[in-house]
Design brief:
Blueprint: E1 15-17, E2 24-26, E3 37-44, H1 47-64, E4 69-77, E5 80-88, H2 92-100
Antiparallel strand pairs: 1-2, 3-5, 4-5
Length: about 100
């Protein structure tokens, strides 16, 4: 069972309680205006399969947000390939919108 906690206000941020579920949140602590970088990790048995999977996520980001900056790093480990796709969005809202749609990719 979730319990409601109260905390002192800090840095002029406002405390609030969700009316739907009763949880406590300090507004401004969850979302910040400079939170624009999303890193997605991928791994697979070979580079081709990892690239194909990563490309789906990259294409989805570029289709919705053409100004997104993409970088990809590959690392070979013993029996697999790991990849980190970095997506740098223009603003926090774009990143959040993209994250909310990840399950549909």
């Amino acid at each position: 069972m979730l319990t409601q906690k109260t905390a002192p206000k800090k840095n002029n941020q406002e405390n609030d309680i969700c009316e739907a579920c009763g949880t406590f949140v300090e507004l401004g602590s969850v979302i910040t205006e400079d939170d624009t970088l999303l890193i997605l990790p991928f791994s697979g048995p070979d580079k081709t399969s990892v690239e194909q999977l990563a490309d789906k996520y990259i294409q989805a980001a570029q289709t919705r947000f053409p100004e997104v900056v993409v970088s990809v790093d590959y690392k070979e480990i013993e029996y697999a390939i790991e990849s980190k796709v970095s997506l740098k969005f223009e603003c926090t809202a774009e990143k959040l919108i993209y994250e909310m749609g990840l399950s549909s990719i």
